Amino acid sequence: METHNAASFLGPNRMSRTGVLLLFVKQLVLYTRAFGLLILVAVYRYVRSEAFETYGFGYVLLLILVFFVLVLVTAFLRYRNFRFYIDREAAAFILEKGVFSKEKTIIRLEKIFQINLQQNVWQQVFDVYELEVETAGSARAEARIPALSEPVANALKAALQAYALQHRPGDNIEAAGIPVGETLKAEDRRYIGSGNIFYASLLSHYGNGLQVSLGFLLVLWSQFNDWAQLFSGQTEEERLMSWWEALNTERLLLIAGILLLIPFVINTIRFVVKYYNISYVVLNPKELGIDYGLFTLQHRIFRVQKLQELNIVSNWFLRKKGISFVTLLQSENTVGRKQKSTTVFPGMPDAQLEELERLFYGQRIRQGAVIRPYANKLVLALLLRLVAVASLGWVATTFFEMPVQGWWLAAGILLWTWLIALLRFRNDAFYLHKDFIIRQSGSLRRTRKIIEPHKIQHLEVFRKLWRPKFGSIAIYTASGVIYGSWYDYDTLYQWSEGLINDVNRTSRSWM
Amino acid sequence: MENVQVALSAMLQAREISFEPISPRYFTVIAIRWLIFLLAVLGGWTLIACLNEIPLALGLSIGGGLLLAAGIWLAVMRLSFKYRGIAVREYDVVFRTGFINITETLVPYNRVQHVRLTRGVLEKMFGLSALYIYTAAGGNHNLSIAGLKAADAEKIKSYIMDKIKIAEEAAGNAPDTAGDEPFAGTHNEYSTDDDSHGNP
């Protein structure tokens, strides 16, 4: 096997040869998506027309062949013209591509922010990796190299990382120049474990799963309706009514049961497939490497200093097993990149969480003094729910002739929402420590958002004119906001003054 | 550039921050803007009422309702000026705004990314400026302070700029003065991340 080192990228390089095939498939998929239906219709018309009897199938096949050859030729040209290299003079990574209109992307080495390796299904088939360079400035000037063999991808990543570290001012670590990742042993890698991911996805986020599955079912229904419209004269309402009449208690219970089970399935697919076999490895004290995915393999490097907020989500089941959902939030460089800048570990065991805490903070997260909202918040929440349920019940009795027994159901719903409100109030708190701010919230699912005071960008303290005792606070970091309401205004104000002082005295950079 | 003096006694005493009110002339600007908008709406309504033969009484009462609503809104605006104010302190700049929901925004100097001053046509006529202070907070959350006297805005701006410079020198990594960056300045064509098109 050819050896690759940083020097081999100083001259123009091409992608792996299988890249031609990958580009071919990519283009083919693209064209099929765009023109597939049109072509099908055209072929169908041709077959039904008189011309078909004279000319036969031969011409169709010839046309398809020509199309394939054209796509293959463009794929080859695109492959030929796709070149990348590191320009040491300019301290930049340069990417050239394009067949008819040439395009040159220049990324300054010190602006390189993150390098990801990933594999989608096709890339797995051809055994190549996609290398993606994220920059600190804009979302647009990203470079993507779709097909690299494994050794080349790793070598290029290491070389770019080393150069990026060299050229980043004020951030010279000893590792600069040494390709990281090669010296790591397999036992340094930590796996969350499929069991934990499965358990965590099965027993949490039920509400979210329910929302997703309801949306999914609605889409399914509208699709079904469109199809059914073609075959029967019934309108949507008529169809719904005929279904409604066919319902009996047994069927209703069955359907409800299935509907309530769907979120479990959807959640499991959502997390198990996306985060399949998720693992992390501490590359050096400044970087964390994360790998995951079943169909699309992701490899990303998380820079420790970029962490803005750590989220720990758990519920009763997860706490029993000692696992939680851990989310790392990076600074959002551009609007709309939130998805990209967050990393989720579903079902991370507490021991691994402790390791991450030590990596990110140099210590375990500690709770300081707790502040809680006034009980007025709870009273208001209970009253609002009472009013909502009562008015719904009134509407149902007046306009829909709800039987008296219906009020039992209403009472049950009210009790449930009250229980949730009570739990929500019990979890509602800020923990103030000199090194950490913890915002705790949630009802059955408890969320803890953790930020360090020196990551704060600015603060907002609110107060209503007619209730000056109660205040709210919003703490902004580069990744978002932490908000709490119905707290004691004086406490909040003193706290915010203290935070401003902390931010001013700190010598630590927020990114 | 002149630097505004900050009274140290004002620090750390939350209750005793004396907010400097913004210029009352800004209310005139708001009123004029509102009047222009109102005239446009009333004009539009008159046109619609005439074209559709809406009875005069109905047309007048709706127009009157609009006027009343506008008056109430202006009155609330006027009252909110009582709470609107800026305080420039040793470590941060605090802006208070709102009438029903009073918001105090605290921006520490060493988190300020950049500062912007703008003046519209009306603001120019009344000698006012709007000051925008940006931090790196996610989304579009930044501090905008409208209706400052132009001279005051300029002073606050230069004060903040000085503070940023001091903070950066203290941190030791002023991004503009990085001397250890070997290629800085020599390749200006690479100073942005934008793609460049064309044959090499």
Produce the secondary structure layout.
The complex is a heterodimer of chains A (511) and B (200).
Chain A: H1 19-48, H2 50-55, H3 58-81, E1 83-87, E2 92-97, E3 103-108, E4 112-119, H4 121-125, E5 129-135, E6 143-148, H5 150-167, E7 190-191, H6 194-202, H7 206-231, H8 236-246, H9 249-274, E8 279-284, E9 287-292, E10 297-303, E11 307-314, H10 316-321, E12 323-330, H11 338-341, E13 342-349, H12 350-361, E14 369-371, H13 376-400, H14 406-427, E15 429-432, E16 437-441, E17 446-451, E18 456-464, E19 467-477, E20 480-488, H15 489-505
Antiparallel strand pairs in A: 1-2, 2-3, 4-5, 4-10, 5-6, 7-8, 8-9, 9-10, 11-12, 11-17, 12-13, 14-15, 15-16, 16-17, 18-19, 19-20
Chain B: E1 20-21, H1 25-51, H2 56-80, E2 85-88, E3 92-97, E4 101-108, E5 112-118, H3 121-125, E6 128-135, E7 143-149, H4 150-171, E8 196-197
Antiparallel strand pairs in B: 1-2, 2-3, 3-4, 5-6, 6-7
Helix pairs in contact in B: 1-2
Explain how this protein is built:
The complex is a heterodimer of chains A (511) and B (200). Chain A is an alpha+beta fold. Chain A has 15 helices and 20 strands. Chain A has a 7-stranded antiparallel beta sheet with strand order 6-5-4-10-9-8-7. Chain A has a 7-stranded antiparallel beta sheet with strand order 13-12-11-17-16-15-14. In chain A, a hairpin with a 5-residue loop joins strand 2 and strand 3. The longest helix of chain A is centred in the first third of the chain and has 30 residues, at 19-48. Chain A is flat, with a radius of gyration of 29 Å. Chain A starts with 18 loop residues before the first helix and ends in a 6-residue tail after the last helix. Chain B has helices at residues 25-51, 56-80, 121-125, 150-171; strands spanning 20-21, 85-88, 92-97, 101-108, 112-118, 128-135, 143-149, 196-197. In chain B, the strands form 2 sheets. In chain B, strands 1-2-3-4 form a 4-stranded antiparallel beta sheet, with no helix packed on it. In chain B, strands 5-6-7 form a 3-stranded antiparallel beta sheet. Chain B is elongated and about 70 Å long. Classes of the chains: A alpha+beta (511), B alpha+beta (200). At the A-B interface, strand 3, strand 18 and helix 15 of A face strand 4, helix 4 and strand 8 of B.
